Structures are given as structure tokens and as C-alpha cells.
Amino acid sequence: MDLSPSQTRRLSHSLLGVNVSKSFTEVQSAAVNRRAFLKLSVASGFALGAYSLMNPLAEAQTSTLVELKANQQPDAFLQISEDGTITVQVNRLDFGQGVSTGLPLVLAEELDADWSKVKSQLAPAAEAYKDPNFGLQMTGGSSALSNSWLQYRELGARARAMLIAAAAEQWKMNPATLRTENSMVIASNGKRANYAELATLAGRLPVPEKVALKNPKHFKLLGKPVSSLSARAKSDGSQQFGIDVKLPGMKIALVARGPVFGAKMKSMATSTAAKMPGVFAIFPTPLDRGAVGVAVVADTYWQAKQARDALKIEWDTDGLERLDSVKQLASYKALAATPGTKTTRQAYQPSVKRASRILDAEYTFPYLAHAPMEPLNATVNFTGEACEVWVGSQFQTIDQATVAKVLGLKPEQVKLNTLAAGGGFGRRAVPTADYIFEAAQIAKGLKIAGKPVPVKVMWSREDDIKGGYYRPAHVHRAQIALDESGRELLGWKHTVVGQSIISGTPFEAFMLKNGVDRTAIEGIVDTPYKLPLSLEVHHPKVNVPVLWWRSVGHTHTAFVMETLIDELAALAGEDPVAYRKRMLEARQGKNASRYIAALDLAVEKSGYGKKALPAGRAYGLAVHESFNSVVAYVVEASVKEGTPLLHKVTAGVHCNFCVNPRAVEAQVQGAVTMAIGLTLPEAAITFKDGVVEQSQFSDYQIARMSEVPDFAVHIVPSMDPPTGMGEPGLPPLAPAFANAIAKVTGKRLRSLPFDLQQLKT
Hints:
alpha+beta, Aldehyde Oxidoreductase, domain 4, 3 domains, seven-stranded mixed β-sheet, five-stranded mixed β-sheet, 20 helices, 30 strands, globular
């Protein structure tokens, strides 16, 4: 998601509702406006950070007024124990993108902390942990580091100032004469104290409102390659994910869902299933979007799975659309040839009269599933008066409010613990909170039935692939008018057909402009190239739930734009690098310098134009911006027996200041691997009679280790504030790969996944 601060503030109200969120927000605000001191946790040693998440008024201090928001208070984010361990609360979800290392790094830099003593924890749902720009506690839009960059620097600087003030008071010295280094406060006379020794006194001092931040020239941690804080735990298996939660007396629940989206349970026979070992309860349960399924609760996953399989359910599907992918593709192609909703004012038709050639290109993209390695899950313990949730949530604020609404509670009565997640790619950021909604409904059903026990709702991989949310299918049609030389573009008519992921959600009021979902056209409407663009959009209504997918609209728009640019360079008889730079430089004021810097770096490091490749192998390149970062790829690829092979990827990355080069490299490698999956033959979700035809990795293909190429990741130096890197590495890979294949075969690929039959003909 790519939202402005004003949009996200409105989103917060839209999603939560004023009545739902009011009491919690008011209580939190009243407390933090009066908080002037850091509280101490004597039981666990000295701590900066006993922030009361559920009842902040109980610990509010009134002696000094400080106009700081909850997310500006160090006490919510920083704990210093007696042994000097520094624990940093991370206000996001970590699902492999490195945020549990990156944000502590930022805070530790300004704190002058001993990095060997720093740990991180994922913060629960609370006012203090809401994104400073979005007004929601969330992880999305590659915004974690960029949006919290200044926030975590100031948190570290405030805590450092308080520790210095504590030392100055203790030693009766001027604070200006003291410095900090490696979790120590040091005086000019050599006197020193570690942070643990000073934490008690520091906790009694006012929180400074304004603090000076370091000059980046003096950074000691930031900008250096740092290993992940969770690397060891993930390597030895001790890392706890949502699926690992175990509570005394806990049961496991699976849900039977209808074969067609929106289906409701009409009748069911449970006699066989109810008698099976370990079965605890079977009952109808509401699903998100108005459907009704059947919950099967048992002692173990396998018992619940066997009992669910034994159910005999009649489903009500009257009036529901039964999608057929073949027919849908034909209808989308027909729609692409008709006028759509205009998003630009550039006229196309007059240019056709002067054109010597028309390039007519049609692109197709299927539905895609997120398929995270850890299947969806949520654990709920509902007592009637309060509720506790354990979940790998990307939308903590929304998920907490959803649980509260289902259970008839206030948000502050729902304690939501954030656990690490084994992948997400947007699937754990659902406006309806589907799997968490299910967990709350089942916990409620058990309570009503007089069986109140903790319950973990689990989705199998088959459940998610067959009944989850999907990246929409799309068709693009581009008609480009060229002059005789092929160098001048006289007109570019571009039509996009695909479902809106925003329509029908609380985002709709401010993210659909004139009926156009911007996520469907990002990467086109904001192209950095100087193009005579006439852009039109169709958003058909289809009975398939759709959602953002890693890099959202850029998953398809980058492929179209960067393969077309490459083809136009060939028609103009220009080198694709030179052609891109000419088109970028012609568009002044559109961030051209960052594109060129990333592209030049990738080209230089790859050996493009200088290093001869083995016979049958070719270079391909692409450059694209998403989430304010630019990634350029130069790849080496070949075709063997009709199968495209990717051998090497050289990346040039412009993400402004790079907090941790090792994390950026990992993000690029992960994005490339996921993007390779887009190209594989069975990387598609298809429908027959309204039913998803795929169910597992055996028929919904993702990249394996054997498909992963050699990597070389290079970062453009910059001192500007960092931009996102969770998603930008994905969009340009597939077009760079396709452009290399075009050079090997002379055939342009216009679909994802790659059409291997086209390569064989």
C-alpha cells in the first residue's frame, strides 16, 4: 500500500469506526500527554520502559507536562536491565524483512548502545506502536523503516539525553561535559558509568521534548553490514512463530468453507465426524464477507482435519458467480479493446495519422496466491471479560478492533500479542481480518456453548490457496505510434483491465479517484519516462476476493512497461541502456537521477557491454521504482530445451541511506527469488465453475533453490532518509529476464508466467 499521511488518518477512522476506537484512543492520549517520567521495572532490573499498555492512566505522571505523543515516549520502546541488556520494542511485524534488526539499529545508534547487548521484541497492539505517518499499527507498503526512521532516532536520542542527565546529577557535573560511548556515560575526568547503573535515576527525570540527532558522518552502526538479531533463533529452531503457540487446555480449530466464494452452509451431517477421536465441538460459524462455514474443534490439528473431511455439507451457492478463467480471459481481452475510464488527458488518436508504425501489444497476468510458508493461524483466549490473542499480524490495530467487535469488547480489553510470521506478502494485512475474524467467532461460539477454552484456528496450505485472497488477474493492451525512425513516440494508448483491490474496502472513499484504483496503474501513470501516455482502465466486478500482493500493482505494470521500453529501444536501433537514459533525461524533474544512478551501477558491475557472454546466453535489463526506491537489474539468461534459465542477477539499488547493507542484500535476494516464481509454468491461480483448481505447491509453483541464480547486489551511496526495500526488488526482475530471453530467441514474452510453447515454436 502506498498512502499519504492524510489518507491513512482517514483510513484509521474508516476501519475502526469512531465508536470502536474512541475510548482506547482517549485514554491513551490523556495518559501520555501527562507522562513526563520513564517508569522503572524493579522486578526485572532497572528499565526504561514499563509502559502500561492496557491501562496507561494507572501509571500516568502529572508533575511535569510534556507535549509528546505515545509513539514519541522512550518508555514504551526501551528497556535496560540490570545486566546491561537493552531490549527494543519493534512496532511492526517481522516476517523475514529484517525489521527486528533494522529499527533497533536506528535506536541504538542514537543511544550509543553496545550493540552486543541489544535485543528486540515485537510490540503488542497499543497506541504507542502506531505508525507515525499512518496512524495505524501496521506493516505494509515497505514503510517500516522509512516511516519510523526519525521516530526511532529520536527515541534513542531522548533516552541518551536522560542517561547523561542522570550521570550529571549524580556526579554534580555539567551535562555538556559528558559524552556517551558503547552504553557508557563518560566524563572528561575519566569518570564513567554504564547505562544499567544510571537507569534508575534516569527514569525519574523528565523526557526531553527536543533532542539533537547525530550527524550521519558520525554513525558507528548505521550503514555497516550487520547480522540479523534473529538469525541464531531461526537457524536453531527456537524462533517462535504464531503457529508455535501452545496454551494449557488449548484446542485446534479448522473451518470448512464453501467451494465457491460467498457460499453458506445449508445443511450438514455431523454424526460420523462428532464421534471421531479428539473432536471437541462442531458448529456453523460466520466467515468474513458474509459467508458461513463450519468450525471443527479438536485436540490436535490432524484430528480436526480428519473430522472436517468426514463432514457431509450441503452448500447454498444460489446467485453466486462461478468464474471460469478461460472465459474471463476472453472477456478481459475484449474489454481491453473498448474505451475505459480515462486517467490522463493525453490524446492518442491524432498521433496515429502521423505514425509510420503502430506497435500493438497485449499482455496477460493470472490470479496469484500469496502462499506464505507458515500457513495462516491465530490463537484466541476469550474469558468473557477480556481476550488475549497471539498472531503474526500485519494490521495490529485493525485486527484488535475486529476481535473486540466480534466479542462485544472494547479494544483495550483485547490484548493482541504480535508474533513473528513465516512470510506474509500482504496476506496477513486483510481489511476484513479474515482468519482472525474466524478465530474470534469460534472462540465466541465455544463460550456460548459453555465450552470456553483457548483455541487456535489454523488454515492448511490448501485452505489458503483454494479459499484465500489473490492478486487480481489483469490484461494490458498498449498501442504505440512511432515515427519513421522509430526514435520518436507519437502516441501511447494503454488500457488496463483488472479488479480493484480497493473497491468494497474502507480505502475506497479516498483511494478510488473517478472510479480508478490507483494500485492498478501505479508504475504506469507515474512513469519516469517521457511518454505521450493515454491511459484507460476497466475494473470488472468478479466473485473473487482480491488483495495486495508483494509490490501490489507493480507486479504487472513493471513487466509491461520495461519489456515495452526494451522493445522500443530495439525498434529505434538503440542500446537499451542508452534508450532508457535518453527517455529518463527527457522527463526533467521526475527523479531521473536516481534511476540513472541505479541503472549505471548495475550496468557497471555486471560487465554489460564489456564482458562477452558464453554462446546462447544474453543480457537483459530493467529498472523500476516502487515504494520510493529504485532497483535496476542486469541479468544473464539462456534457454535450454524451451525452458528459460536465469544464471546471474546484478542489482543496482537506490534506497537513499542504507541502514544495513546486509538486510538490503537479503531483501533483494528474496524478492528476486519470489519474482522468479512469477515466470514458472504453473505460477497461476485458475478457476473452473467457480472453484480454484490449484491447492498446493505441487500445482501452484514457486521458485525452488535450483532456480535461484548467482547474486551481486550493489547500493548507490546516499545520505538522504531511507526509503522502502521490502518490495522494490521484485517488479524489475521478470521483465529483465524476459528481455534477455527476447535477445536469445528473438521472441517477445507478453505474459506471466512465461509461455514456454511460444519459445518452442
